[in-house]
Amino acid sequence: MDFIYKSFDPTKGNLGTYVNFRIRYRLIDLLRKIARESEQTEQMIQEKITEIDGGNRYGLSKFPLINRQGLPVSNEPFWQEVKRHLSKRQWQWVEYFIIADLTIQEIAEIESVSVDAVKSWGREARKKLRQKEVVERLKKLYPSSGCENKV
Q1: Of 69, 71, 64, 110, whose CA–CA distance to 89 is shortest?
Q2: Exposed/middle/buried for 6, CB within 10 Å: 0-12, 13-18, 19+?
Q3: Which of 8-12, 56-60, 112-116, 134-138 has the highest mean pLDDT?
Q4: Do residues 90 and 128 lie in contact, with contact meaning Cβ atoms separated by under 8 Å?
Q5: Would you state the torsion angle of the CA atoms of residues 77, 81, 82, 88, taken in this order, to the nearest 10 degrees?
Q6: How far apart are CA 8 and CA 3, in angstroms?
Q7: What are the CA-CA distances from residue 33 to residues 3, 27, 38, 44, 77 (Å)?
Q8: Minimal CA–CA distance to 21: which of 32, 12, 11, 37?
Q9: Most confidently predicted of 18-22, 49-53, 56-60, 61-65
């Protein structure tokens, strides 16, 4: 308070008004400083997140996009055989839903289609993969998979 009294000029007005003025604007400056620091912290966090996941995000959920080429797939011949029996969209459903473990809503956002369309891809993929000859071929490539029960 001593700094306020020393800077006070009695020719310009009342001491009480001057003290209120100084305190009020000091508090406003403090609030602005806190808000600015908060914004800078948030910006640094966003930069780090972008650095980690490449900044590629989709839709309203803001989940990071997956790198479809980098998905770890064990038993590559098995998945190639699965892919051979499916259409492009049905394989996308398998790739996203089964391998990448994404939800139907997330798949719909990534592919810019309706949720019903994604459900349809899954229905058709399951139907094709349940065919007896397909199951037999997949069993040969991956005998312990129990694939007839999972699809």
Answers
A1: 110
A2: exposed
A3: 112-116
A4: yes
A5: 110
A6: 9
A7: 21, 10, 9, 17, 60
A8: 12
A9: 18-22
User: What is the three-class DSSP state of 71?
Assistant: coil
148 band by pLDDT with thresholds 50, 70 and 90: very low
Written as six digits, the tokens of 62 are 């803001």
What are the backbone angles phi and psi of residue 63, rounded to the nearest 5°? -75, 150
At 114, the amino acid letter reads S
* Both tokens assigned to 59: 């839709």
pLDDT tens digits for 97-118?
Answer: 888 778 888 888 888 899 999 9
* Beta strand ranges found along 40-113 (DSSP E): 57-58, 63-64
Q: Which amino acid is at 122?
A: G
Determine contact, residues 103/109, Cβ cutoff 8 Å: no
Tokens (6 digits) for 95: 């790739």
Residue with tokens 């699809």: 151
The span from the CA of 107 to the CA of 58, in Å, is 10
Which two tokens mark 24?
Answer: 């009020």
Distances (CA, A) of 70 to 54, 79, 94, 148: 14, 14, 15, 27
